[in-house]
Design a protein that fits this description.
The chain is α/β, with parallel strands linked by helices. The protein has a single domain, classed as 3-Layer(aba) Sandwich (Rossmann fold). Helix content is 32%, strand content 22%. It has five helices and seven strands. Strand 6, helix 4 and strand 7 form a beta-alpha-beta unit. The mean pLDDT is 94. It binds guanosine-5'-triphosphate and magnesium ion. The site of guanosine-5'-triphosphate has 24 residues, from helix 1.
């Protein structure tokens, strides 16, 4: 898709701050530092639209980005960062639960994992949660530029098995560095919006 217009809309911490209207939205879930914000930037052809950082925990709120006035990407705070207090984890849980359980406009969750590593227990829980509540999900295995091409398929297979993905579940190999998988991701997104 050709992205011609991109706009940061709001950092929300509660449902009353979510944008009004019925535009479809796609939410980015995944471990802290996995590359969720970088995914949005690459998809939108913008270097610094969504703030990224080499330190985990950069995104702390639900950040809404409007693309071509047609859909929103919602950048969610990451999970699985060890240095987070119990209270903060609980707050994260409430915020996510509220969003996933109430948001009618949510068309799919883009679940981002790192192609280099086996999915963690947190990744498994996230994926199971989405499946359990029948929230459509697109798994994106990112940072392909960090491992040799010859290893991609083996790692992709492991991710499918560990997450418990079914044949019909979509897994896209992606790199915010090289742009690999970008068109495939757009195609998958439009399919979820139409479904
Ligand atoms: P939180 O907001 O903390 O949850 O992190 P995030 O998931 O939004 O990650 P972010 O996009 O900030 O990226 C984390 C780090 O990984 C940054 O240093 C990025 O430059 C780097 N990164 C993200 N995607 C890629 C990729 O595809 N390839 C490479 N080489 N680096 C990447
Ligand atoms: Mg982020």
């Amino acid at each position: 898709m050709k992205v011609t217009q991109v706009e940061f809309v709001i950092s929300a911490v509660s449902p009353k701050q979510y944008p009004q209207g019925s535009l479809p939205e796609l939410a980015l879930a995944g471990r802290s530092n996995v590359g969720k914000s970088s995914f949005i930037n690459k998809m939108a052809n913008r270097k610094n639209l969504a703030r990224t950082s080499s330190k985990p925990g950069k995104t702390q709120t639900l950040n809404y980005y409007l693309i071509n006035k047609a859909l929103y990407f919602v950048d969610l705070p990451g999970y699985g960062y060890a240095k987070v207090s119990k209270a903060e984890k609980a707050k994260w849980g409430r915020m996510m639960e509220e969003y996933f359980q109430t948001r009618q406009q949510l068309k799919a969750v883009i679940h981002v994992v790192d192609i280099r590593h086996k999915p963690t227990k947190d990744d498994q829980e996230m994926f199971s949660y989405l499946k359990h509540y029948e929230i459509p999900v697109i798994v994106v295995a990112t940072k392909t530029d960090k491992i040799p091409r010859g290893k991609w398929q083996k790692h992709a297979k492991e991710i499918r098995v560990i997450l418990g993905m079914e044949k019909e579940d979509t897994l896209i190999l992606f790199s915010a560095e090289t742009g690999q998988g970008k068109e495939e991701a757009w195609t998958a997104i439009w399919k979820k919006i139409r479904d």
